[in-house]
Each structure stands twice: as structure tokens, then as C-alpha cells.
Amino acid sequence: MKMDHIDRALIAETQAGLPLVAEPYAAVAEALGMPEDQVMARLRSLKARGIMRRIAIAPNHYKLGMTANGMTVWDVRDADVAELGARIGALGFVSHCYERPRALPDWPYNLFAMVHGDTRDEVEAKRAEIATLLGAACRASDVLYSKRILKKTGLRLAKGK
Amino acid sequence: MTLDATDRLLLNELQAGFPIAASPFAVVGDALGLTEDDVIARIARMREAGYVTRFGPFYDAAAMGGGLCLCAMEVPADAFDAVLTKVNALPEVAHNYERTHRLNMWFVLATETEDGITEAQARIEAETGLPVLLFPKLQEFFIGFRVAA
């Protein structure tokens, strides 16, 4: 999907966040020198085109006390991964769930589900729930805990491109 | 600060989405029985206290014509810091986590073009002498995360 220079300017202006003022889209419009209704129409268009996923808040799991962050990984039969992945993704405690390619022989897992908890025991209990749900369609699994955040920057789009 | 029940409600509601309207905080407030000013003040407080990492539009790098890919490396312990410095030096590396596994370094590459992923992979492999495994998403199953309200 093509983007024009107005889309790019709007993305560059808002990718770090929206201003916390009563009329945030008017504030963005003023910064860009375009009408407010055009900013709102563009944002709707970016969403309709799949370029913008949503406007939302991103919580800090660590600050919320959920310091155990487990990337659970599963080797699920290919024929079942679409149906089971959708069910795992719908679980309230799973923040992200993806099918990814295996990297054999190093890596047999094709389903990734991120699970957060206050403790590793809590993450293990949730992992057991996922295992029950997957049943015989799952041949092997593992969990990788995050030990340290080594870098965290958002998506960066160069201004003026 | 600690979060009260209203903060948690807001946090959950706003993870799902935020309206595109002239006075969007008033729209959110109406739905939750809060004033516009209270909604803005609570978000500002949670952001300042670090409970909120971002508030705004989430853009999809792949849909913008760019590349996005989860990558993993097996980094020997005695080389970890040196490799980390080289990997993190790339602006395309958006997130990087140390994880408990033989594959102990997991990072996300976000590039302006799709080809940028394999170019960044080749550069990291050349600079570190270590293989970089690519795990692009094939399908996404995402509903969203909820804090206990």
C-alpha cells in the first residue's frame, strides 16, 4: 500500500505518541499546518489500509509488577496451528501470539506465545494451561524468560522521507 | 503512585483502542463515567510514573513497506558484551532481550524496506562472526493483554 508525503509527515509527527490535550488531533494538525478533519480522515485511512493498527495505550508490564516475562514456544502440528493459535491468542494472559518458521535442527518450535506474570511460577501455571489446550497436537515446548532488556526503542521512521 | 481501580479500568479500555474524534478523551470519559479532565490527568500521571510506555497510534512496519523480524543468536558468555555493543549499534535493532536459552539474544529488526532485514542480518553476521536466525511472523493471533481490573 502506497503512502504519500502527507501520510509520512503524519506518521513522523505521531509515532512517538499523541499529545495529552483535550483536542489532540487539532494539536497534531496545527503542528503539521493542515486542517484537523484532514488529520482525522488520514488516520482513519491509515487504519483502513492496515498501516496503522490502532491508537492505544501500551502498558509497562514490569512497572505493573509483572516482572516474569516468558516467551513460551511450541512445536505444533502444521495442520492444527491456525486453529490452535487463534485459541491461544484469545487467552487473556497471552499478550502476543504468532506462528513463525522453525529453524531446524536448532529450533523445532513454530508457535510463540508471550506470557506475563508476577512470578515464574505464575508463568509456569499459565504455560501448563496452554499445554492442556494444545494437547496431542503439540510435540515439544519450552519457555524463554527475559533476563535483561538490552535495548528498547520504538519504531523509527525518518522525518522528511 | 499506585494504580486505583479507575486507573486499571482506563488502562484496559485504552489498550483496546482510542477514538478518532475531535474530543476523544471526552468520548472515553462518557463511556466510563469520568470527566474529560480526569481521563487526561490519569493518563498523564500513569505515563509520568512509568506505567504507560506509549500512548498513540501503533504503526505496522510491514504495511508501510518495511520489514519487521524477530531474530535470535547464540552468543558465547565471554563475548556477550562485545556482541551486544555491535548488535545494538544498528539503528534497525528496535528491541533486544537477553533470554534463558542456548539462543540467548533475541532482538527485533525494523527496517524501512523488506530487503533491509537480510541486509541487517548479513551485517551482524559479518561483524560478529555468529549466525543470526530469522523468525518472521507467518500468522498473528492477537487479542490483547489485560491487567487485572
Description:
Chain B: Pathway: Porphyrin-containing compound metabolism. Chain B: InterPro entries: AsnC_trans_reg2 (IPR040523), HTH-Siroheme_Decarb (IPR050684), NirdL-like_HTH (IPR053953), Tscrpt_reg_AsnC-like (IPR019888), WH-like_DNA-bd_sf (IPR036388). Chain B: Residues 69-141 form the Siroheme decarboxylase AsnC-like ligand binding domain. Chain B: Residues 7-51 form the Siroheme decarboxylase NirL-like HTH domain. The complex is a heterodimer of chains A (161) and B (149). Chain A is α+β, with helices and mostly antiparallel strands. Chain A has helices at 5-14, 24-32, 36-48, 81-89, 120-134, and strands at residues 52-59, 68-76, 94-99, 111-117, 138-152. Chain A folds into two domains: 5-49; 61-145, Alpha-Beta Plaits (2-Layer Sandwich). Helices cover 35% and strands 28% of the residues of chain A. A four-stranded antiparallel β-sheet of chain A has the order 3-4-2-5, covered by helices on one side. Chain A is elongated, with a radius of gyration of 20 Å. Chain B is an alpha+beta fold and 149 residues long. Chain B folds into two domains: 5-49; 62-136, Alpha-Beta Plaits (2-Layer Sandwich), CATH 3.30.70. In chain B, helix 2 packs across helix 3 (36-48). Chain B has helices at 5-16, 24-32, 36-48, 80-88, 116-128; strands spanning 52-59, 67-73, 93-99, 105-111, 133-135, 139-140. Chains A and B meet through helix 2, helix 3, strand 1, helix 4 and strand 3 of A and helix 1, helix 2, helix 3, strand 1 and strand 3 of B.
